[in-house]
Amino acid sequence: MTRSDLVARLAERFGQLTQRDAEFAVKTILDAMSDALARGHRIEIRGFGSFSINRRPPRMGRNPRSGEQVLIPEKLVPHFKPGKALREGVDTRGEATEADTPSTDPSRS
């Protein structure tokens, strides 16, 4: 699902919202989440998951072209941990999809 798909779904589901209003709502939410992560805060959405910042320590890497060692600086990267409800929902749907599609593995016949 892309951002524009999400905007279209919101506008479709909530008839009182125009496409422009739905786009503004999605942009506002994503901007607020980005700002919170940039300030080092943790975001938790119950039933969905949590976003946090992980620190990657500095390390020595290697330039593949010359083979020379290069210092890779410390980085802060966003991390998402799915919530229990999301994990279970994906797993349940995955099992239903596997049961609906016939197996191409001859040993499973």
UniProtKB/TrEMBL annotation:
Biological process annotations from GO: DNA recombination; regulation of DNA-templated transcription; regulation of translation
Family per record: Belongs to the bacterial histone-like protein family.
Region called Disordered, residue ranges: 53-109
Gene Ontology terms for molecular function: DNA binding; structural constituent of chromatin
Subunit record text: Heterodimer of an alpha and a beta chain.
Compositionally biased region (Basic and acidic residues): 85-96
CDD domains found in the cross-reference section: IHF_B
Annotated function: This protein is one of the two subunits of integration host factor, a specific DNA-binding protein that functions in genetic recombination as well as in transcriptional and translational control.
Compositionally biased spans, kind Polar residues: 100-109
Pfam family, one: Bac_DNA_binding
Gene Ontology CC annotation, any one: chromosome
Keyword field: DNA recombination, DNA-binding, Transcription, Transcription regulation, Translation regulation
Record keyword DNA-binding present: yes
Protein name: Integration host factor subunit beta
